[in-house]
Amino acid sequence: MDSLLNLASSFCLLLGSFLCLSGGVGILRFPDFYTRMHAAGVTDTLAAAMILIGLMLQIPETLVIIKLIIILLMTLFISPSASHALGRAALLNSLTPVVAVDKNHAEQTTEVGDNPSKS
Amino acid sequence: MSMILGLYNYWIVIVLMMIGFYIIIAHGHLIKKIVGLNIFQTSVFIFYISLGKVEGGTAPIWQENITLYSNPLPHVLILTAIVVGIATTALGLALTIRLKEAYGTIDEDEIQAMDNQAMDNQDKESQPC
Amino acid sequence: MGIAIAINQIKDMFAVVMLAGIYGLVSASFFVTLDAVDVAFTEASVGAGISTLLMLTTVAMTGRTEHEASHKPMLALFVVMVTGGLLIYGTFDMPYFGSVDAPVQNHVGPRYILDSMQEIGVPNMVTSVLASYRGFDTFGEVTVIFTAGIGVLALLSVARRPDDDTAIEAINDSMHEKHLILRVVIKTLIPFILLYAFYVQFHGDFGPGGGFQAGVIFAAGIILYAMLFGLSVARRVIRQPLVQLLSAVGVLIYGSVGVVSMLNGGSFLDYDVLSADPIAGQHLGILLIELGVGVTVASVMIMIFFSFAGRSEYQQAKKGESL
């Protein structure tokens, strides 16, 4: 039981670290603002959640586990809202996403995804 | 070698302090100066806190079985210093906003030039023809 | 260190402010590795929170790029190098990092560590030193924060006419749909933020925390509300005269505890005489002054933010008139 907990916790922690790294690489290498924001959102939400779950599996005391669960709930609430706020601000200030680079035509085709006044 | 291992934290602090110092004196933009001041202050905090650390000690919160704690006195001093630092920064930023309204720019050289010009104009007006 | 060099080179002020916030956060985590949990808490909330917010507001009002330097920075570089060299020369006499027999560990430090539980009975030694052994310094600090609040008020306050209630409701409703998701989420979360601020305030005796951190977190919750629902709505909820009164009341509570101690026969800010049992007196004294500190810090931070944001509105209104 103990080694199973250890195994699960180390798996979660490793997965969380890998997601952090990939998020960092994504922020540097993605071509467009919206894709970079997605990478940052993944780091904020999923990587933090994985690390918290990994930590939770390590500790035997109940009070610490409850505190970590509360932090996890807060993170799941707040990080997607933050990414949403970022994306919204960009869209409302008319930063259009790059949709496709068509190699047959000379120029890029760009279009605004949703109608901003509706969402 | 043991000297480097023992003293490297001070050298890091000094490098940070010098970078902050350089930002303060070499840039004309007032907000950048305030940011440089912040960097300088934080390096001083790191200096004090690293002074208080004891090898093998824990945070200074009393627990049943632990006898070796880090020194709480630098923590107290730095707590005060951080709050005073934010007070200074807030006042500095408020002054910057008023300066921008009065002069239209917050570059130090341009403000100095405008002041010199105003003084020259005043001298020319007050001289008898 | 890399962050500091980047701040030096970058000309876009927005990026500089963001990097300054990251710098604050990195140094906060650095403080945690150096066992300074209270300090890390304060640096994270103040340096990475409030400070970034105020700098962003200022950059929004003053322009985003920095002009080119008009003279070569050779003299500045030379001065910096010489000072750095002298300082490094000075460190050769200093005690090694983490050594147990350094002078700083040997005079007052052990006395605080060993006697804090018996004399004061509060597990968090930083709180006991801050509030009881070094209570005078903390009084000065609260006064400094109060003075900064007054200073910002003097510089940036704008005479306000009483706002038209129906106009505010109209603005609020028109923006409601635009920010629907954020408003719903934040409305659910702000009570928890304020509750956390109270938790940090009163739990500061047993874990990291205390008056300053609690005040900053409380102010951050209110500022979040103001940012999302508009400044006029927030001013209706937290009235300016009330906030100004509260900032003075905090300092007054702190001073009154000291005066009551004197009236009871001890010296200024001597908590032993506040109650029959000295340890209970210490607990009561620490509770009251942390309350005073928290109230002052929260109201001053709210006051400063309202002044900054109010000034920005005033500037925009003046620009709108002159167009």
CATH architect. name of chain B:
Orthogonal Bundle
CA radius of gyration of chain A is 19 Å
Structural class of chain A: mainly alpha
Percent helix range of chain A: 55-70%
Overall strand count of chain B: 0
What are the segments of chain B in which pLDDT stays under 50 over at least 5 consecutive residues?
Answer: none
The side-by-side strand order for the widest beta sheet of chain A comes to: 1-2
Spatial extent as radius of gyration of chain B: 23 Å
Query: How is the CATH topology of chain B named?
Result: Helix Hairpins
Write down the overall geometry of chain B. Answer: elongated
CATH class of chain B: Mainly Alpha
User: Could you say which overall geometry of chain A the principal axes of the C-alpha atoms support?
Assistant: elongated
Rounded average pLDDT of chain B: 83
Low-confidence stretches of chain A: 106-119
The portion of residues assigned to helices of chain B is: over 70%
The helix/strand class of chain B is mainly alpha
**How many angstroms separate the termini of chain A?**
49 Å
Question: Could you explain the architecture of this structure?
Answer:
Chain A has 119 residues and is mostly helical. Chain A contains 3 helices and 2 strands. Chain A has one domain (2-110). Chain A has helices at 2-29, 33-56, 62-92; strands spanning 98-100, 109-110. A two-stranded antiparallel ribbon of chain A has the order 1-2. In chain A, a hairpin with an 8-residue loop joins β1 and β2 (109-110). Residues 106-119 of chain A have low confidence and may be disordered. Chain B has 4 helices and no strands. Chain C folds into 2 domains: 1-66, no CATH class; 118-323, no CATH class. Helix content of chain C is 76%, strand content 0%. The longest helix of chain C is centred in the last third of the chain and has 45 residues, at 278-322. In chain C, 39% of the residues are buried. The model of chain C has no long low-confidence stretch (mean pLDDT 82). Classes of the chains: A mainly alpha (119), B mainly alpha (129), C mainly alpha (323). At the B-C interface, α1, α2 and α3 of B face α1, α2, α3, α4 and α5 of C.
